[in-house]
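[job 4471] stage=fold_predict status=RUNNING
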Amino acid sequence: MKSQPLALRPHDICVLLQYTLTPEVPFRELSKLVGLSLGEAHNATKRLEASRLVPPGGGTVNASGSVEFLVSGVPYAFPGILGPEARGVPTAHSGPVLRDDIRSGEMVVWPSVKGDVRGLSLIPLCQNAPETAEKNPSLYGLLTVVDAIRIGRARERELAQAFLREHFLREGRDRS
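[job 4471] inference complete, writing structure tokens
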């Protein structure tokens, strides 16, 4: 029987981004930080290793490969599609990282009853993404930047790409 090739899943991006914030974090802690089960945090790491975005053994991140994938691959692999207006948590250009640089009358949100903003809805990469705003603000900021790449116009994408490059460079994660 042939085994299925490993393919990244949307929530693997959350795990990748968390590794830039807390390298070599134990799986139990990783699962809490990204809101996944312990087994799925482990499986996501294995898929990231197979994709060469995280070296075997996990923890550190292939910074140049990760930035390339986030900028050039994610918008095609996990395209963002805006839906109807909903109440939720701000993301993309409406999120905390880009909102001061991008002036737009159009808000974008992850639908959530806990959100206090109305805007066009966007399904997040991670099911628990709306909760990260409160529980894990650093990951929340990075996820909103990735969403700006997924759905943004040219200026929004440029600012998001520059932010990610700076983040990966600053964090010094090119150790693979």
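[job 4471] summary: Residues 154-171 form the longest helix (18 residues).
[job 4471] exit 0
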